[in-house]
Design a protein that fits this description.
Radius of gyration: 23 Å
Mean pLDDT: 91
Shape: globular
Low-confidence stretches: none
């Protein structure tokens, strides 16, 4: 009889009744004993499918083998050969759809908790003050400008710095980190973690200039004149709206604004910080992705009495990670499925007061693979609300690329790139959400890493820019 595998180690978490009153991190991380027990579950496959499922190709079996031996610092350094942000990725990556989703052990049992082990060793290395900066290579004399300091831009910057190039990152906000600082709440990703990972990139030799809006103070052609290469990693920070009556009422936020106020501007610590945020008693969040869950859970912590996710499909189709959905439900967030708003109504002072909705049934799958929602005639009903947060997705902000001659964009605003991130403008690459639309942190990092490899080849004269007729666009053409 085959030997039964040990159970997957459960991540310790802050109790629900405690965590909904605080912005402290919910997941508490493995102990040393739990990490070793979890690492012992790894099969050490000769053909590690988990690595193939990782967008940045972390050497997963090797780092887990080191955890088994209690060589935690060596394990962290092994990960950093491929991923400069293990503490971040260990917290926010959708491992269940990537490395863990490809884990061979998961075919019969629960997959190895790769993300939790990654988080553990990164936190251990930092706690032991053992973060080591790789030796600085001989400078190449080449200069690269990176626009945007989110995960894609910083991943690209770190890789290029390790190859000896002089890298300068331009960031529009007053703090680097992109979506890591403005979009993801403290209870999921403490900003001290982001600051530590950004500091690591700086120590690699990367210069980060904040409060620089490219497209306004400096243009892409001007950057191209000063630098040997430019990488555009400006993300997807322009919110989408529903296009229904009443969206301009007071108390209606985009999730982007709501979370930026709460996270980057520290509204949850008002009046210690200057930016306030008003949250009513009854909050409706439209959408069911990770951003919607973040907004709903943030609203609870800001004092809302009742928070409801409103989504036009069922829980089965929710794009949010299963863990985020479960955390939201544990904390008391309600789920109003197969429903979508069609009108927002306000009082005499233009404060949102009612939300008229319509119900749906699910039809055949659409181009996303999810069943298409079909409105049910005569099913309209209204609910009381005093805050509405719209979390139905984002698109790239056009400020950077607008009007740049020779730079081709998609109809939805994204920049057209080839497989390596080259744009239609020589010497300019792009990657992450600005090229694909809103996606995951690790996929943005994978794009940054791949672009860095191509930029390095170009700067060393190993490749030339393809002629227009040989340039092959890659990825999504519609969004």
């Amino acid at each position: 009889m085959a030997k039964e595998r040990p159970p997957r180690q459960k991540m310790p978490e802050r109790p629900v009744e405690e965590r909904i009153k605080t912005f402290e991190e919910v997941a508490l991380g493995y102990t040393e004993e739990q990490a070793v027990l979890e690492a012992q579950r790894c099969l050490q496959c000769p053909r590690p499918m988990c690595v193939e499922g990782c967008p940045v190709r972390v050497p997963i079996p090797q780092f887990i083998a080191l955890v088994r031996e209690k060589k935690f610092i060596e394990a962290a350094r092994k990960i950093k050969e491929a991923n400069v942000f293990p503490a971040i990725c260990g917290r926010v990556c959708p491992q269940e759809n990537q490395c863990e989703g490809s884990c061979v052990l998961g075919k019969r049992y629960e997959p190895v908790a790769i993300g939790r082990l990654e988080r553990f060793v990164a936190d251990y290395e930092r706690a032991q003050n053992a973060v080591e900066i790789p030796p600085t290579p001989e400078p190449t004399g080449k200069k690269v400008a990176i626009v945007g300091s989110g995960p894609s831009g910083l991943a690209c910057a770190g890789e290029l710095a390790k190859k000896g190039h002089k890298v300068t990152v331009y960031e529009a906000f007053h703090k680097p980190g992109g979506v890591l600082v403005y979009g993801i709440p403290e209870f999921r990703l403490p900003k001290s973690i982001v600051e530590a990972e950004v500091e690591y990139v700086k120590k690699l030799g990367v210069e980060i200039l904040t409060d620089h809006i490219i497209g306004k103070t400096i243009t892409i052609p001007e950057l191209r004149e000063e630098y040997d290469a430019v990488y555009l990693a400006t993300g997807a920070g322009l919110p989408k709206f529903l296009g229904i009556p009443g969206e301009n009422l007071k108390g209606v936020y985009s999730a982007n604004e709501f979370l930026t106020r709460a996270n980057l501007m520290k509204a949850y610590r008002f009046p210690e910080y200057d930016t306030p945020i008003k949250v009513g008693r009854r909050v409706a969040v439209i959408g069911a992705g990770n951003v919607a869950m973040d907004a709903a859970r943030t609203a609870l912590r800001l004092g809302a009495e009742e928070v409801t996710i409103v989504y036009r499909r069922t829980e089965h189709e929710c794009p949010a990670r299963k863990e985020e959905l479960e955390h939201a439900k544990e904390e008391g967030v309600k789920m109003l499925m197969l429903t979508s708003p069609i009108r927002l109504m306000g009082d005499d002072f233009y404060n949102v007061e009612w939300m008229e909705c319509i119900q749906y049934k699910l039809g055949e799958p659409d181009e996303s693979g999810r069943r298409r929602p079909i409105p049910l005639e005569g099913s309209e009903f209204s609910i009381r609300v005093d805050t509405v947060i719209i979390a139905i997705g984002q698109t790239p902000n056009p400020t950077v690329q607008e009007g740049v001659e020779g730079l081709e964009t998609h109809s939805w605003g994204g920049i057209v790139v080839d497989e390596d991130g080259k744009t239609t403008l020589e010497g300019v690459w792009a990657g992450g959400d600005v090229a694909t639309g809103a996606a995951t942190v690790i996929r943005a990092m994978g794009a940054g890493k791949k672009a860095a490899e191509d930029i390095d080849r170009y700067l060393r004269g190993e490749t030339k820019w393809p002629e227009k007729e040989h340039w092959e666009p890659y990825g999504c053409k519609t969004h």
